[in-house]
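Z., the sequence and structure:
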Amino acid sequence: MKKVVIFAFKGEPMCFIHVLLNAIDMKEKNIEVKVVLEGESTKLVPELFSEKSMFYNLFKTAWEMQIIAGICKTCAQKMGILELAKEKNFTILDDMYGHAGMASFIIQGYEVITL
């Protein structure tokens, strides 16, 4: 089975929507897919859980499909949302000097895509 992990670095809403759309599409097409929130995308966490947000339905679908692998600890802390991420039960990823590393995914056979 094909395995893909998408590292979402950008905090631009339209970019992140496409991360979610692609991940959901891959999952529906039997590709094992994970999404990691990194860099500026971590600042989007409050919107992801807001029913008034354009992200809400897509993120809820991705969350329920268990596509979201986690969030970078250092970047979440820098963006001021680490505690919220913990409250929302994100897996906190810090295996690369406090950041979410790609190596562990590569070792598990994932192809890495960055957006």
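The radius of gyration is 13 Å. Residues 32-114 form one domain.

Let me know what you think.
H.
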